[in-house]
């Protein structure tokens, strides 16, 4: 492979802001795996956000890119999996598997797509120093008439259209809007774009915690919600605390600490089979590796208000929830899924076109 922009490339990043800023190019924020695609003839490589290759996990994507991209190019985009007109991040994460036979099976069962939203090189020319508006024109021209599973991400400079996307696209599994300055050059690993995400609050049961890697202070709070059957389901964690606050939380939660997990709603967390019928902390995964997933059980009697942006398949917080305050006025049984706002469904095909 011999391209004007060579791997590894660290993608350009975005910082969070509260409102959609005016006077920019706007795109949907895709909920997938960020990928930089390098194609030189028959050679195709998919680089992850960390620079590690993703190619072997998505052979069907690599084959489609080999057929549909210009002979020599570098593009920035997102690998996604769609099911029933909705992005499915859980299905996407399952694609990262060490066994080649399993990778091939999943490529047929849950095929992925590539959504291109930037171009970094074409032919022998690097486009890293070309303004965004010009790169966008080159991207559209390079992928004119492209067919699924390769797509060009919709973009607009109309802020009212972007506001409409912000409200509608969440129903298809997207989690916000990205705003990019029109004259922006491609700046690797710098937060020079802007992301606007939904923020909602929920009252959750604090049912345990994990210790911080630095010592005997709280690393993260384990959060739960009750389902229709009255079972406390693990829905995520809250982890962003100053070190002083982490130490205070140990003392605050000590009266709720359980010496024996057997009486806890998540007592079966160490049993891998139990994770098939309930959401429990410590689920084994390829992402956790050898990470210590042990946790300290608490009597599920304390309620906290947390902020979150997105629910994955309506079951868990997609990202780390942000602690807001304790809610002594709420009872744990009142912390159910019913309080959560459900986005209006929106068909992904309406965004990308085609099946």
Q: Quick gist of this model?
A:
With 355 residues, this protein is an alpha+beta fold.
Query: Would you identify the CATH H-level superfamily of the largest domain?
Result: DNA ligase/mRNA capping enzyme
Radius of gyration: 22 Å
CATH architecture of the largest domain: 2-Layer Sandwich
Number of folding domains?
2
Output the CATH topology of the largest domain: D-amino Acid Aminotransferase, Chain A, domain 1
Number of helices: 7
Distance between the termini: 33 Å
Strand/helix succession: EEEEHEEHHEEHEEHEEEEEHEEEEH
Structural class: alpha+beta
How many E strands?
19
What kind of sheet is the major sheet?
A: 7 strands, mixed
- The amount of helix comes to 10-25%
Shape descriptor reads elongated
**Quick one: CATH class of the largest domain?**
Alpha Beta
In round numbers, the mean pLDDT is 90
Chart the SSEs and their pairings:
Layout: E1 13-16, E2 24-28, E3 33-40, E4 43-47, H1 59-68, E5 72-83, E6 86-87, H2 89-93, H3 100-109, E7 112-122, E8 125-126, H4 132-142, E9 150-152, E10 155-156, H5 159-168, E11 177-181, E12 191-196, E13 200-212, E14 215-226, E15 232-238, H6 243-253, E16 296-308, E17 311-312, E18 316-317, E19 322-326, H7 349-352
């Amino acid at each position: 492979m011999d391209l004007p922009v060579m791997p590894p490339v660290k993608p350009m990043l975005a910082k969070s802001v509260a409102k959609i800023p005016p006077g920019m190019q706007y795109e949907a924020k895709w909920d997938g795996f960020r990928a930089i695609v390098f194609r030189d003839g028959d050679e195709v490589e998919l680089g992850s956000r960390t620079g590690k290759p993703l190619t072997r996990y998505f052979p069907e994507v690599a084959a489609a890119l080999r057929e549909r991209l210009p002979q020599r190019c570098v593009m920035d985009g997102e690998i996604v999996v769609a099911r029933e007109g909705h992005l499915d991040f859980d299905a996407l994460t399952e694609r990262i598997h060490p066994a080649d036979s399993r990778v091939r099976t999943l490529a047929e069962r849950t095929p992925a797509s590539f959504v291109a939203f930037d171009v970094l090189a074409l032919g022998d020319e690097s486009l890293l120093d070309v303004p965004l508006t010009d790169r966008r024109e080159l991207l559209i021209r390079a992928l004119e008439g492209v067919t699924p599973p390769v797509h060009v991400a919709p973009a607009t400079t109309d802020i009212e259209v972007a506001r409409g996307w912000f409200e509608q696209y969440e129903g298809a599994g997207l989690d916000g809007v990205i705003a990019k300055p029109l004259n922006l050059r491609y700046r690797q690993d710098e937060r020079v774009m802007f992301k606007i995400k939904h923020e909602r609050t929920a009252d959750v049961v604090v049912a345990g915690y994990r210790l911080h890697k630095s010592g005997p202070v709280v690393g993260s709070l384990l959060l739960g919600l009750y389902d229709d059957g009255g079972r406390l389901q693990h829905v995520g964690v809250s982890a962003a605390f100053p070190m002083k606050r982490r130490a205070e939380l140990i003392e605050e939660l000590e009266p709720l600490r359980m010496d024996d997990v057997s009486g806890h709603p998540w007592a079966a967390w160490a049993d891998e089979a139990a994770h098939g019928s309930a959401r429990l902390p410590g689920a084994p995964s390829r992402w956790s590796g050898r990470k210590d997933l042990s946790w300290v059980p608490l009597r599920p009697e304390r309620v906290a208000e947390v902020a979150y942006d997105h629910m994955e398949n309506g079951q868990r917080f997609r990202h780390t929830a942000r602690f807001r305050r304790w809610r002594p006025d709420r009872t744990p049984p009142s912390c159910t899924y019913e309080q959560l706002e459900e986005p209006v469904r929106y068909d992904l095909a309406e965004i990308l076109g085609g099946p």
